[in-house]
């Protein structure tokens, strides 16, 4: 039975799912949803995810939205070490994934909305939102930086879904200008993943190509 994942290559959330599937060697069929044309809000798509958000996975009568849930579903299928090699690691991976969704990526998403999506729609940045995001990004990044001082990965001694979730905001960093570079261990960790995980590098190229083509089309270059 084929596994479909719906999404737009410009999406950092889709990138998490595509990269994880590639790392695990799980074949998927990507169904394009053009987010720049609002295709995640059609009645047909809203039947898949009433929130109008991508990615969405579909396999038979199973439909899952939220990239982290999709990745756990895929990893469970093949008992992948991406979910940790022991039960203890698995809970640590989940801990960091939940933290990433609630306390980490959210601020980069808001920054993206202000500095990239809003700009593409001709709106100017809201300084109070930008300041709120920068304050929260810096305080979380400081903790990550300390965590990564003597570790190569977020959990254990190899890549897990926690690395993928936490590295996701780096997908748009050249556009959001999130201040990650101020945190040397954090910056070195994401560069190491980019340099050593081909699926992470390939999906970055696809994402940058898609974003740059769209933004150039609306007269924005970075
Ligand atoms: N927490 C969700 C975030 C999903 C999300 O924000 N997706 C964006 C693309 S990165 C989207 O589909 N946006 C469409 C829209 O807002 O219209 C996940 O991790 O999957």
Please give a structural write-up.
The structure is a single chain. The chain is of the alpha+beta class. Helix content is 58%, strand content 7%. It has two domains: 4-80, Glutaredoxin (3-Layer(aba) Sandwich), CATH 3.40.30; 82-217, Glutathione S-transferase Yfyf (Class Pi), Chain A, domain 2. It has helices at residues 12-24, 43-48, 67-77, 87-120, 127-147, 161-167, 173-176, 184-196, 198-217; strands at 4-7, 29-32, 56-59, 62-65. 38% of the residues are buried. Bound molecules: glutathione (GSH). The site of glutathione (GSH) has 12 residues, from helix 1 and helix 3.
Report the C-alpha radius of gyration, rounded: 17 Å
Identify the overall geometry: globular
- Indicate the mean pLDDT: 97
Q: Can you list the ligands bound to this structure?
A: glutathione
Q: How are helices and strands ordered from N to C?
A: EHEHEEHHHHHHH
| CATH topology type of the largest domain | Glutathione S-transferase Yfyf (Class Pi), Chain A, domain 2
SS-based class: alpha+beta
How many domains? The number is 2
Strand order of the largest sheet: 2-1-3-4
CATH architecture of the largest domain: Up-down Bundle
Assign the CATH class of the largest domain.
Answer: Mainly Alpha
What fraction of residues sit in β-strands?
5-15%
Helix coverage percent of residues? 55-70%
Terminal Cα separation, in Å? 42 Å
Q: What's the total number of strands?
A: 4
Q: Which stretches are poorly predicted, pLDDT < 50 over at least 5 residues?
A: none
Number of helices: 9
* Biggest pleated sheet: 4 strands, mixed
């Amino acid at each position: 039975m084929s596994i479909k994942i719906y999404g737009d290559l410009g999406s950092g959330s889709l990138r998490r799912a595509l990269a994880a599937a590639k790392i695990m060697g799980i074949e998927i069929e990507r169904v394009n949803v053009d987010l720049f044309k609002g295709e995640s809000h059609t009645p047909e798509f809203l039947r898949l995810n009433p929130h109008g958000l991508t990615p969405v996975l579909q396999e038979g009568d199973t439909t899952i939205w939220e990239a982290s849930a999709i990745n756990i579903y895929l990893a469970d299928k093949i008992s992948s070490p991406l979910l940790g090699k022991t039960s203890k690691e698995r809970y640590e991976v989940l801990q960091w994934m939940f933290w990433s969704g609630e306390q980490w990526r959210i601020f980069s998403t808001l920054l993206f909305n202000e500095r990239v999506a809003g700009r593409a729609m001709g709106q100017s940045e809201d300084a109070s939102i930008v300041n709120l995001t920068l304050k929260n990004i810096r305080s979380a990044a400081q903790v990550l930086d300390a965590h990564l001082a003597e570790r190569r990965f977020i959990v254990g001694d190899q890549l897990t879904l926690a690395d993928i979730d936490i590295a996701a905001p780096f997908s748009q960093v050249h556009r959001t200008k999130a201040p990650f570079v101020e945190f040397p261990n954090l910056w070195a960790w994401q560069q190491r993943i980019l340099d050593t995980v081909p699926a992470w590098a390939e999906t970055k190229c696809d994402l940058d190509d898609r974003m740059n083509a769209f933004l150039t089309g609306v007269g924005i270059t970075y």
